[in-house]
């Protein structure tokens, strides 16, 4: 894998690295959820290969990222799985590549998701990820939960994943969509290397505290929807504040790049996984890892 820039384009190393459990990854990664939206698998394969050419070594996925219907509500024809697109594009996998997947949900035939976090369901999902990715172990598995105040213990589900870790099927564990109390509970059971939550400069800022706690504990905080924000699955937020526009102008950058740069400035343990099916957006997102914001700019944005 390249360690510097590719041609004239900024590489993923510009954002620096983070020690993710027993692996080191570049802080600018890639989210694969949107790859199933394009009916042409070749387009997704081009984006994945370009990401790796540009030095991305941390890719987020899930076996339940599947067309048609489903999370993004698009697509016809045979189902396209993000995990299988990753396998087609990148297998045999570069040794440095960390593929993070998540469990706790299952997709039905239409790609619609439902919660599925019983121990047997989690074991089946791990096996499905192994099969679709074509691996004999998973680098990193996040337990994705649904929050239900008062009755959302992660103990049983995380315990089931810890057993799979002990059995060698999983190397490292993380959590997704959690609060600090979930993190406390899981850390009693097994090491947690990352927390993946929805977070951006104008969305879910109640997580500021969790970002800080993760930093103190040496745990990566991986924001999703760092571009989409409150628009979630509908796509990138186009509603940028005057501050975002002003900082973007000052850096000759796009508002989306400033959103990503802001996320990376929330701590050395924050890892970005922007999602795109567009190679130009991919290059722009990776280049955002080179943007250095001043304290004044951060204060204005924050
Ligand atoms: N743990 C969880 O529960 C969870 C939930 C959702 C997602 N995730 C993960 O997080 C990753 C990121 O989330 P996401 O992909 O939904 O949202 P995102 O990265 O916040 O935003 C993606 C959206 O922004 C657009 N975009 C990307 N780069 C752009 C650029 N440079 N300029 C303009 N528009 C740009 C994309 O459209 P184009 O394709 O046109 O670029 C897409 O509509 C996902 O891929 C997935 O791996 C995790």
TrEMBL record:
Pfam family of the protein (one) = Aldo_ket_red
Oxidoreductase among keywords: yes
- The NADP-dependent oxidoreductase domain sits at 27-300
Which cellular component appears as one GO term in the record? Answer: cytoplasm
GO MF annotations, alphabetized: oxidoreductase activity
For this protein, the record's InterPro entries field holds: AKR (IPR020471), Aldo-Keto_reductase (IPR050791), NAD(P)_OxRdtase_dom_sf (IPR036812), NADP_OxRdtase_dom (IPR023210)
- Name recorded for this polypeptide: Oxidoreductase
Top-level taxonomy: Bacteria, Bacillati, Actinomycetota, Actinomycetes, Micromonosporales
């Amino acid at each position: 894998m390249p360690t510097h820039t590719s041609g004239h384009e900024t590489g993923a190393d510009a954002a620096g690295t983070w020690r993710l459990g027993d692996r080191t990854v570049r802080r600018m990664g890639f989210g694969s959820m949107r790859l199933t939206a394009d009916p042409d698998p070749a387009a997704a394969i081009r984006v994945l290969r370009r990401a790796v050419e540009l030095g991305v070594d941390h890719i987020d996925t899930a076996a339940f990222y599947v067309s048609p219907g489903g999370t993004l509500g698009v697509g016809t024809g045979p189902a396209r799985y993000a995990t299988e697109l990753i396998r087609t594009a990148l297998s045999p996998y570069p040794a440095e590549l960390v593929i993070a997947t998540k469990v706790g949900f299952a997709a039905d035939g239409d790609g619609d998701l439902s919660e599925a976090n019983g121990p047997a369901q989690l074991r089946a999902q791990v096996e499905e990820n192994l099969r679709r990715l074509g691996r004999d172990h998973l680098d990193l598995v996040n337990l994705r939960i649904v929050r239900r105040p008062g009755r959302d213990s992660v103990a049983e589900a995380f315990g089931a994943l810890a057993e799979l870790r002990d059995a060698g099927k999983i190397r490292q564990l993380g959590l997704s969509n959690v609060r600090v109390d979930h993190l406390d509970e899981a850390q009693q059971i097994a090491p947690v290397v990352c927390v993946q939550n929805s977070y951006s400069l104008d969305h879910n800022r109640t997580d500021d505290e969790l970002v800080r706690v993760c930093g103190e504990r040496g745990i990566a905080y991986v924001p999703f929807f760092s571009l989409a924000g409150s628009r979630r699955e509908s796509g990138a937020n186009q509603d940028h504040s005057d501050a975002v526009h002003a900082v973007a102008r000052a850096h000759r950058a796009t508002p989306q790049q400033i959103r990503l740069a802001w996320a990376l400035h929330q701590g050395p343990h924050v890892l970005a996984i922007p999602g795109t099916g567009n190679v130009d957006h991919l290059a722009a997102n990776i280049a955002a890892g080179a943007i250095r914001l001043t304290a004044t700019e951060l204060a204005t944005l924050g």
